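Q: Hi! First time doing this. I have a protein sequence and I read that you can turn it into a structure. Is that right? Here it is:
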Amino acid sequence: MNIRRWVVALGLLLCANACSSGGGGSDEDTEFASWEKFRHDGANTGQAAGELAENGGGVRWRTQIDGSPIRSSPAVGQDDLVYIATQGGTIAALDLKDGAVRWTVCACDGTGSGVPAICPVGQPPEFGAFVGSPATYFQDTREGKGTYLHIGSHDGTLLGIRDDAQTRTCTMRFRPRVVTAGAGDTVRAVRFDASPTYTVNVATFALAAVFGAASVDVEADGQRRTIGKLYAVNTDGTLSWEFPRLGQPEIGGITASPVLDSANTVYVTADDGYLYAIDRDGNLRWRFAVTTATGAPEPFAPSPTTSVTIFAPTVDGTIVAVNPDGTFSWRTRAPDGASFIASLAVGLPAVTPTPTASPEPSATPVPDVTASPTPTATPVLSSFEIFAVTRNGAVLAVNVRTGQRRLVDVSSGPIAGPVVSSPALSGDAYLVIGDASGRLHALDTTTGLQPEGWPVLLSPDLAILSSPAIDADGFVYVGTMDGYLYSIGDTAEPTAVPTHTPTPTRTVAATATRTVTPQLTAVIEP
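A: Yes, that's right. Below is the predicted 3D structure, encoded as structure tokens:
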């Protein structure tokens, strides 16, 4: 391992355990996934240990699942599989090396029952469209061995599947029964478009709880409104708690994925413009107004990130840093004035730059609840930066402690907007970005230069909405709107495409190897 990679791993580990970005207890025999969930980890850092410098931009393989578009983002497990979900309602596991389909799932007969290895041709989609992304965890405990996958669907189901390498088993199928206490309210729709996250028991390393955020359409007296809910669900599919609870004030709809810190505080942004901090028991610690804009872009809003502080990109083109006690830290604005749809990545730049602009001064909003004092930042994090891509394709880097920003030159390959795909940061500080022209870029985070062979044209004139994932070997995985999952590797020319006959396109309405990457999933004390 080179020095830079060691520093990245050390910094993220310190961030996970000494600061506020959600870390799991582990020992040297614990294995970690390369890219376990949307934004890589429980802190939503978007950074992998895999390095990209030797990746020549060639297509290693591409595989079509069911012919329907892919907005979901891939997850790379430690079992040499990459997991993806489609807008047609299929969940699939593919071999990392050649893209061969190991299994697909599109129905569950009930909790505890086996599911078919390959979806029957013509079987109607039971789950509805998948917009959010799978979260995976490999568990080897008395409670069970295998890869556990959780994902929410557009039709309001939070689903759990266990893969023990031979059989797929449905472990959870959660559908909210009561979502509002308003008299006369009728629930019209529930959408789990945000990607879930989870906690792990620090004593047993077993999954403890899964967190799913939803937007809920309710109607009363002929008027329809959208509210938000955060659900903490036990691994058997029973509800642990919901926020807000029945009778509490409503919050805006949620399409941003939640983030966890090391104290199991859950942070989530809602369409009412607030960042919410919810404790491990489902109680509101504080809320902070990060934007005056309301509503969310399609198909989802940018998700918060945590690393010492909590960083929230907004639809009005600002990034707001909030301390763990709910007090204001800093705010900076996108230089092109465009909004943020893509989420952030955080890590070390290629070369520590000298910032050229200062954050905007702002009055400090008063949080609703006073919490614990702000922890002291870890020194190794002083050079860490947030990397953000605006809707128009501008790329900026922001110092995590000061909020000072700089622009990353994108003249080597302009990034076509609107940019929805969230960037992935490699261990050697390349930022991988999907754009509206169907191209995948890899930018040096200091110079803006791209490696030979990049950018890569995947789906001409079809925007990439899926967010890329990077595995431990530096291979990149991303879905496209023409229904393919791609693996981008180190070959100059595309290799043979594996054959897989997809099931007919379903029309669904839609509004391993051990790595050194520390797992940033939060833990529950025994």
